Every structure is written in structure tokens, then in C-alpha cells.
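Archive maintenance. Older records in this collection stored only the sequence; we are now back-filling the structure field for every entry so that each record is complete. The fields below show one back-filled record exactly as it appears after the update. Entries are processed alphabetically, and Receptor associated protein of the synapse is next in the queue.

ARCHIVE ENTRY
Title: Receptor associated protein of the synapse
Organism field: Cebus imitator
Length field: 359
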Amino acid sequence: MGQDQTKQQIEKGLQLYQSNQTEKALEVWMKVLEKSSDLMGRFRVLGCLVTAHSEMGRYKEMLKFAVVQIDTARELEDADFLLESYLNLARSNEKLCEFHKTISYCKTCLGLPGTRAGAQLGGQVSLSMGNAFLGLSVFQKALESFEKALRYAHNNDDAMLECRVCCSLGSFYAQVKESMKIALQHGDRPLQALCLLCFADIHRSRGDLETAFPRYDSAMSIMTEIGNRLGQVQALLGVAKCWVARKALDKALDAIERAQDLAEEVGNKLSQLKLHCLSESIYRSKGLQRELRAHVVRFHECVEETELYCGLCGESIGEKNSRLQALPCSHIFHLRCLQNNGTRSCPNCRRSSMKPGFV
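Back-filled structure field:
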């Protein structure tokens, strides 16, 4: 089956599918998959099969076609097709409640080099990752992912994506509410603080700052009581974002300064990165160049302190989708660097590395 015939049969299947003749549409698409030699057509029909089986609740079949689509995308050697197929693989695993795999495939999507489809599919990737974190009850990361997905939806006027994100936020809110109920029943103060922080973040993301502020205050009070300094940093960061939303930049900077002191005491570089990033945007909007440059410098210093580097080539690990090798001594290098190095011992500590492990 050639390119033109493949295209015609795919369109025929779509017409059948849209007229609710699902089984007939699947038969047409399966014949295309069996007989077509056109890679582009095969990729497209696999996407149709993935979507159809997802909507029918046949998630194992959905996963099967997503795996075949990945192989087709690799043959096509196109980053856009690879991104779409990895997203389908992530969503298939999400439906099957394989949440760790979902997160892994979503991270692969986000780590792919710049693609034309990235702006369109980035929101769906963030939504799928948020649903996976929610499935694992990792509430803070789930909310961060949902917020990213919502930004994609707003920036691209994607009403359908916005609707799906709001549905997920509804599930998120229900789970946090249930967790809060359990925390109150058992007197679990740390869990209460975490739930309050999540509630505050939800209201902030919705623009309901009047409700967000007291929730942050309550979370901050409990975090201070139990001595959770990192939790205090998260609460203060949320407060700062609320003040930014209200254009009260000086109050935002006061909250950031308090959070920065706590983050430095704890030594949490990720929190420091977030705070420096927010400070940058504030000083840029205020036109204060000296303060802006200071935070840019500190931001890059934190990045350097948190990055991993290959001990052989010196390149940052994680910027490219490269295979890594962990040696028994726990030192990590690019696999290609070790292969080119030609030694059977660790280049850092010289210990024997006869049985390497891959990561």
C-alpha cells in the first residue's frame, strides 16, 4: 500500500470513527498497519489506534500500539514524532497506573531537544506528569506540573487542555482534602501543614489570593512549631508569589529574604534557585540592574553547585539524552567517555571497575 492509498484509508477510518462506527474504523486502520510501507502513514495510523483504544478504555492495547509507534518514530528520525510517541507511551502507562514509568517517559519528553511540537504537546506532558505524581500522592510536584500545564493552555488558547487540567485539579483537591481529614483525626501536624500548603498553592494558582494568604500563614505556623525549615521556605515562597500577583513587590522581596535565609541555613540549593529566579524577575520589573546582576550571578553559582559533571569530558550530565554508567565505586560517567578511555579502573579513584552498573 503506497502513500496516497495509505492517506485515503486513514481518512476513511477517521470518518467511520467520527460517525461512531468504532470497530469498523479499527479494522480499516489495522489493515493500513499490516499493508502500508509508508512510515509517515504508519506513524499516523498508530496515533489513531492509540487515541481510539484510550477512549475505549482498552489501555493494554493502547500501550501495545504506543510501543510500536516509538519504533516507527525512531525509524523516521524526527524529534517531533519522537516527542509525540513518548507522550503516548507516558499516557498509556498513566492509564495503567504505572506512575513511575509515566514520570520517566514525561521527563524523556521534556529532555528532548527543541521541537516544533513542543509548544503544542508540552502542556499535555506536564498534565500527564501531574496525574502520575497525584497517583503517587506527591502533592507538591503534582501541583507544580498542573500549574505548568495550565500556563501552556493559557498561552496557546487551548480550551480542551485547560478543561482537562481543571478536572485533574478537582481530583487533586479532593485527595488533599481527604488527607487533611485523616491528618486532623490522627493529630498529624506535619501532614496538616503539607495539606494547608497544597490548599494555599491551589487557591493561588486560581487567583484566589484572599483564601491563599491565611492558608500559607497557617502552614507557616505549623512548620515553625514542628521545626520544618524547608516547609517554612515553601510557605514563604508561596506568600512571595501572592505579593507579586498583587504587584506588592517590596513585600514579596521581604518574604523572599526570609525564605533565602532559611534555605541557606538548611543548604537546600533547589529552593535557593527558585528564590533567586523570582528575585530576578522582580528586580528586572523594577529596573534595578545592580540587584538584578547580583541575583543572576548567585543563580548561576547555585546551578553550578547542583549540576553533575562527567569526570572525563567535563560536560554537564543531563543536558543531553546520553547513556550513563555508574561504577561500583559510585562515580558516574558518560558511557561513551569510558569506552573511549580504554581503562578498566575508575578514572577518579582508580578502583577496579570490572562489574559496572548502568543507570
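Update note: The two ends are 41 Å apart (CA to CA). The chain has 16 helices and three strands.
Entry marked complete.
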